[in-house]
Amino acid sequence: MPSVVHVEHLIKRYKRAEVNAVDDISFDVAPGEFFVLLGPNGAGKTTTISILTTTLAPTGGKVLVAGYDVATQASAVRQSVGIIFQNPSLDVNLTAEENVRLHAILYGLYPFAPRFALMPRAYQTQVHTLAEVLGIEKEIFKPIKTFSGGMKRKLEILRSLIHRPRVLFLDEPTSGLDPASRRSLWEYLRQVRAGYQTTIFLTTHYLEEAEQADRICILNHGKVVANDTPAQVKARLIENYVLVDAADREALRAELQARGIAFSETPQFKIDLNGASIHQLLKTIDAPLTMVQIHTPTVEDAYLAILERE
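RESULT FIELD:
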């Protein structure tokens, strides 16, 4: 199946800059995929997503979004994507529904009508359905100025889905939200992805949000330094180990040595799993253990290891 986002040898250099902001990067995003673009400040994330959403022109390379070239078919690209920016982009002088209606009219989806009741039935049904999915059906006709940060983010998702985009770009969507609002927002995004088969393209500084991604791409100094599933990135870069200890440490040390189990003392006994089963490892140890602590690497561990290596 063709990629819904295709980036090939993309280069971006700003005027009077000595180095490329984006330096010959390539990657693909499959339809329906949850794709996460990571990187420290200045790595090229914002530049890349700006090019993909046609708000910035590339210096070189080829970029296709939903099959359209961002350089020569920008209007078609915009018709095919939804965008949630880091900073809110709602008109606080309008109600929630009026914000959605303005968006739909600007996209040419429906003719203008001064009131919701005068809009086509298809629009009314779509708004009610999306509002119910996002849990804001009771607030959809209220003024934006009464909304919390989390509610505004949900409304931006609703608005960005009204034209049924093939790709939903999320640029730091949970920035500034409290933990409860962030969790709630991601639950709704999972529902949206499942219900609408929308491709999710995320940039974030909250690395735990990348744990459930199908693929992560890490940029540093404008270059791709990793591009794989979270599991594969973690497996290549991070130790998977277990810490054990016993009241009789001499006996445990002697047993590990006798069984040929490599370990280091940290001061607990650190045993690298190297793909072995933790269950099988523990079955081979007869000494009574007072502590067993499994270290399972996270995307954040892998991310930091990559940046340290770079």
